Amino acid sequence: MAVRKNQATLTAQEKRAFVNAVLELKRQGGYDTFVSTHNSFIMSDTDDGERTGHRSPSFLPWHRRFLLQFEQALQAIDPTVTLPYWDWTTDRTADASIWGADFLGGDGRSSDGQVTTGPFAFGAGKWTITVSPDNRNYLLRSLGAGVADLPTRADVDSVLALSDYDTPPWNSSSDGFRNNLEGWRGVNLHNRVHVWIGGNMSSGMSPNDPAFWLHHCFIDRLWAAWQTRHPDQGYLPADHTQDVVGLNDTMKPWNDIAPAALLDHTRFYTYDSAY
Amino acid sequence: MSERTTTSTDLTRRRMLQGAAVALTAATATAVLGLTGPGAAPTAAAGLEADDSFDEVFQQRRIQGMPMAAGGHHHGGGAGTGYQVLIDGQELHMMRNADGTWISVIDHYRTFSTPRALARSAVNELRGAALVPISV
Ligand SMILES: [Cu+2]
Ligand SMILES: [Cu+2]
Predict the structure, then answer these.
(1) Ligand 1 mean position to A45 CA, how many Å?
(2) What residues of B are in contact with residue A135 (Cβ under 8 Å)?
(3) Number of structural domains found in chain A
(4) Is the dihedral of CA A72, A74, A75, A81 positive or negative?
(5) DSSP per-residue codes, chain B
(6) Distance between alpha carbon B49 and the CA centroid of its chain, in Å?
(7) What pLDDT does residue B99 have?
(8) What is the CATH classification number for the domain harbouring A97?
C-alpha cells in the first residue's frame, strides 16, 4: 500500500524522486493535460449550473480522483513515488523547506514574480508554462502577498468540528464542512492557500505550480480527518440532486466512479499519520 | 494594444490624465480593489445595474466592463453572468458567485465586490502581460 508522507519528512532521495517524476511527466507532455482539465472544470463549475470539481459537494471526491490519476501517472515513471502533503499549519513561512532549491523552489522575484530557484524555475529549462490565461511562460509565485497568513491549526480544527458534510444549495454559499474547507465561507482554508502562494496558484490553471498537488494532498487528508471525527456523518447529497453530484452519481470527466467509491481513501493509499 | 509594452512613466501619467480615472492615479493594490478577502466575512456585492459600464485606464491598461446580451453563445463572458470585462480589448474570463461577488480566471480563489475591482486586480497580477484566449 502506497503511503503518502508529510513533505517536511522526505529524505533528499525522496524529494529528488518526486521532482524527477514530475519533470519527466512534464517532458512527456502528460503534465499539461492535468492543467487544462483542471481549468476547464473550474471555469464551468458555476453556482447556478452544473458543478463538479469546485463549489459543490464533489469538490473533495473529484480532487481525490484527480490526485490519484496524477499519482498514477508519476508512478508509471517511478513506482516508488507517492504524493507528499504540505501541512501549511506548521510549515507556514516563505523560508520553509518546501520552498527550498532542492524541492519546489522559492518565491517569485520582485521584478516580475518569476520563480528563479529550484527545478521548476524557467531558467532551469524544464518547466515552461503552456496552459495559461496570459502570455507569460514562466512559473509565478508571490508568497504571502495576496493574503498575509496561512490558516492556523485552530482554523483547521474549527472547520473539522462542523458536523454536516454539505448543505443546500450545495454551492459557494453553503454552510457545512465542505464549503468551509473549500473556503468560500468561514475562516477559509483551501482557497486562502491558493491566494497565499499567488501567481499561477491563484489562477484557474493552478496545477501549473507543483505546489498544487501537495496542497490538495493535505486537503484530502483533512477530509479523512473529518470522517474520523464524524463517524455518523457522510457524503451529501445522498440522492440525485439538480446540477450536483450525488453519492452514487458518476463524476465527469471519468464517468466511471461515484463519490461512494472514493470515501475510503485506504482502498488506494494511506497517510503516514492522521491529522 | 500599445499600453502593455509601454514602460515610460511620463507616458503613463499622460495616459492616466487623459483617461476617465484621474482620481485613481495614485491608488494601488488592495486599497482600491474591493477585495472580499480570505478570512474576512463574505462581503455583499454592490448592486450591479444592467447598464453599469466602465471604461478607464488603470496602471497603463485599458479596462472595460459592460453588460452583455443574456444567453449569448459567447463562452468567455462568464457562465451566464451577462457581463463582460476586457483588458486592452482582450476578454477576462469571469464568473459571478451566488452571493453576488465576482471571480476571474486570474483570481479564481478570491472574490471581488465589483467587476471593476476584479479587472484592476487582474491588471496588477498581469504585471504588463497580455491576456490570451483560453482553449478549453
Ligand atoms: Cu481544483
Ligand atoms: Cu485547489
Answers:
(1) 10
(2) 129-130, 132
(3) 1
(4) negative
(5) --GGG---HHHHHHHHHHSS-GGGTT--GGGGT-B--TTSPPPPPPP--TT--EEEEETTEEEEEEE--TT-S-GGGTTT-SEEEEETTEEE-EEE-TTS-EEESSS-SS-BSSHHHHHHHHHHHHTTPPB-PPP-
(6) 16
(7) 95
(8) 1.10.1280.10
Could you tell me the distance, in angstroms and rounded to a whole number, from the CA of residue A191 to the centre of ligand 2?
6
* Residue A204 forms contact with B (CB below 8 Å): yes
Please tell me whether the interface predicted TM-score (ipTM) of this complex is above 0.90: yes
Output the pTM of the full model: 0.88
pLDDT tens digit string along A127-167?
A: 999 999 999 999 999 999 999 999 999 999 999 999 999 99
Judged against a pLDDT cut of 60, whether residue A199 lies above it is answered with yes
pLDDT value at position A135? 97
**Measured distance CA(A128)–CA(A113) in Å, rounded:** 15
**What residues make up the domain containing A92?**
2-271
